[in-house]
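Slide 14.
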Amino acid sequence: MVDRTGFSYSQVYRIVRGKNNMSVSGLIAVCIALEIQPISVFNYEVIIPKHSSTRKNFNS
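Slide 15: predicted structure.
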């Protein structure tokens, strides 16, 4: 991965361990290195919890 992305070994290590945020261009570089399309990285669903309304109901 280091030779394909141009990232340093320590940078790749931090990304893999979740210790470093990645830019969109960095994500594209990783996708190119892995020979995958970016859509395959984001092809999943997450459960988004519903939150109660933050507005207070005022009865007149």
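Speaker note: Helices lie at 2-5, 9-16, 24-34, 38-41.
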